[in-house]
Amino acid sequence: MAWENSRPSHVPTAVRDACLARDNHRCTVTQRNGTRCPETANLEAAHIDQWVWGETTTVAMVVTKCHWHHNRETQAQAAAARGPRQSYLRAEERHPGLLHE
Ligand SMILES: [Zn+2]
């Protein structure tokens, strides 16, 4: 489909669905307190390793993450690619939907 080509790192729907089913439709990220993120909404199939142009995504290459965790990781990868720069250093954001100790 044309719209998938406009976003090359997009995970095919069938792969995304299989990924979410395997992970019981829940974010797989382990939080700092050792518990698994309880988010079951706004889930996305996130690449385990950074996606490479032209690579075909398979279920083995993705894990389920909530949008918040996926977005935070994507931003961290982008920051790492840029290298440390003072203006990008920000205080850690808290997950808006979760209770923290
Ligand atoms: Zn999460």
Give the gist of this structure.
With 101 residues, the chain is α+β, with helices and mostly antiparallel strands. It is 30% helix and 10% strand.
* Helical proportion, percent range: 25-40%
Bin the strand percentage: 5-15%
Beta strand count: 2
- Number of distinct helices: 3
Keywords:
flat; two-stranded antiparallel ribbon; alpha+beta; HNH endonuclease; 3 helices; binds zinc ion; 101 residues
Describe this structure in words.
The chain is of the alpha+beta class and 101 residues long. It is built from three helices and two strands. The chain has one domain. 30% of the residues lie in helices and 10% in strands. The termini are far apart. The site of zinc ion has 8 residues, from strand 2 and helix 3. This is HNH endonuclease.
